[in-house]
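Lab channel / #folding
Pinned by the channel admin:
"Please post every new chain as: sequence first, then the structure tokens as a reply. Keep commentary short and put observations after the output so the thread stays searchable."

First post following the new format, from NK:
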Amino acid sequence: MMVSGAALLLVLGGCSPNNSENLQRRTADATAAAKRDADAIARGVAEGLKRKGPLNINQASDKELETLPGVTPELAGKIVENRPYGSTRDLVRKRVLSSAEFDRVKDQIFVK
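Reply from TO:
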């Protein structure tokens, strides 16, 4: 079988060291990103398994509050500072959380 010069150049051009290095770099980047994502998922699962149910916002520690979706250390501190709460909706009434932030955590909190 005879291979034309143009076909041979295309085949060899696709296998050049530059393309191989580029492919290797992209593969390494994708692998690193997948590892970060897998680590984040594993940490989330571990936190979820530790949590025994909804959090009482009048008693939960800062660290426990930070396990809620979107709750940063600063926001957890603000929740603690504005205690006590008569209902979970007080988080919005006292302007500790926005309505959107409250909607993300409302099923995971309670007041006692």
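NK: The chain has a mean pLDDT of 84.
TO: also worth noting, The longest strand covers residues 55-56.
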